[in-house]
Amino acid sequence: MLKKAKRKVEEIPTASLADITFLLLIFFMVTTSISSDKGLLFFLPEWSDEPPKQMKLQGVVNILLNANDEVMISYTGQEPSVVPINLIKDRLLTLARQIGQDKIIVSVKYDKQSTYEKYIDIIDQIQSAKIKRVSLAQE
Amino acid sequence: MLFNKKEFKPAEISTASMPDIIFMLLIFFMVTTTIRENRGLLVKIPDAENAKKVEGKRNIVSCFVDNGNRISLDDKLLTPAKLEEVIKTKIMNNKKLIVSLKADEAVKNDIIDQVHKSFQKAYALKIVYATRTK
C-alpha cells in the first residue's frame, strides 16, 4: 500500500503586508495635492490721494463697462465701438498689431452698477490677448 | 523528579492583522481630519479661461464678497474701511502677500470697487480673482 503523504498547509508570509500598506500610504500622501486656488492674477495700480492726472500716453486702449453690462472699446483716432464680450480678445489683438505688442496699454473702467462677472470676462479676454500692461481707471 | 520540565516554546505573535489595524487607523484619521481652511461666505465664483494655479499657498489670504455685499476675511465680516486696516497689518507682516478675491459673480462692481480701493490703500497690489476653469 502507498503511504498517503501528509499534506502540509502552506502559509503565506503576511509580515510584509504592513510595509506594503505603509508604502502605499506614503506614496499617496506625497502625490496628493489639496486643490489649490485658481484664478486670474492681476496687479492693481498704486493708490494716490490726488486726483488722477489726465495722462497723455501713447497706445492706451480704454475698455468701458457700463451699467447695462455693455462693453465699449475706444482708442484715440478710432470711433469707439460697442463690442460683444467674447470678441474683445480679437479686437485687442488687432489693436495690439496696430500699436505694437509691447506698447499697448489697456485701461479698464467699470460702472458701479455693472456686474462682477462681466468685469472678470473682460479681464479674462485681456489675458487671452496676452496683454501685459493692464490698468484700472480711477475716477 | 516529580515535575517534568516543560519544553519552552517561543510564542509567535501573528502579524497577519497588522495591515488591518493600520488600515483602520488610516481610515479613522482620514474621516476625522478636516483640512484647516478659513471658511468664508457662500459664493459662486465666475468662470474664466485663463485661470491659473496660484503659487505659494501660505502667502494667499482669501477675501470673500457675497451676494449680499458682505465682505469677509479670516472668518470675520468687515467693512471696506476695516478691511483696509486688516490687510495693512497683514502686508506689514508678509510682503509677498497675495489677496485672493473670491467674489460672487452676481455682485455689482460698486462693492468690488470699494474692495479694490481698500487693497490699493493697504498697498496689497498683487491680487488674484478667484475663478473656476471654463
How does the SSE layout of this entry go?
The complex is a heterodimer of chains A (139) and B (134).
Chain A: H1 17-31, E1 38-43, E2 60-65, E3 71-75, E4 81-83, H2 88-99, E5 105-110, H3 116-128, E6 134-136
Parallel strand pairs in A: 2-5, 5-6
Antiparallel strand pairs in A: 2-3, 3-4
Chain B: H1 18-32, E1 47-48, E2 52-53, E3 60-65, E4 71-73, E5 76-78, H2 80-93, E6 98-103, H3 109-121, E7 126-130, E8 132-133
Parallel strand pairs in B: 1-8, 3-6, 6-7
Antiparallel strand pairs in B: 3-4, 4-5
Helix pairs in contact in B: 2-3
The biggest sheet of chain A, with number of strands, parallel, antiparallel or mixed sense and barrel status, is: 5 strands, mixed
Q: Using DSSP, what is the number of strands of chain B?
A: 8
How many angstroms does the end-to-end distance of chain B come to?
Answer: 89 Å
**Residues in helix, % of chain A:** 25-40%
Average pLDDT value of chain B? 84
Put simply, the count of helices of chain A is: 3
The H/E string of chain B reads HEEEEEHEHEE
Globally, the shape of chain A reads: rod-shaped
Strand percentage of chain B: 15-25%
Q: Kindly, what is the distance between the CA atoms of the first and last residues of chain A, rounded to a whole number of angstroms?
A: 110 Å
Overall number of strands of chain A: 6
Strand order of the largest sheet of chain B: 5-4-3-6-7
Describe the structure.
- Chain A is built from three helices and six strands; from the N terminus they run H-E-E-E-E-H-E-H-E.
- By secondary structure, chain A is α/β, with parallel strands linked by helices.
- The longest helix of chain A has 15 residues, at 17-31.
- In chain A, strands 4-3-2-5-6 form a five-stranded mixed sheet, covered by helices on one side.
- Chain B is of the alpha/beta class.
- In chain B, 31% of the residues lie in helices and 22% in strands.
- Chain B is built from three helices and eight strands.
- In chain B, the strands form two sheets. In chain B, strands 5-4-3-6-7 form a five-stranded mixed sheet.
- The model of chain B has no long low-confidence stretch (mean pLDDT 84).
- At the A-B interface, helix 1, strand 1 and helix 3 of A face helix 1, strand 2, helix 3, strand 7 and strand 8 of B.
- Strand 1 (38-43) of chain A pairs antiparallel with strand 7 of chain B.
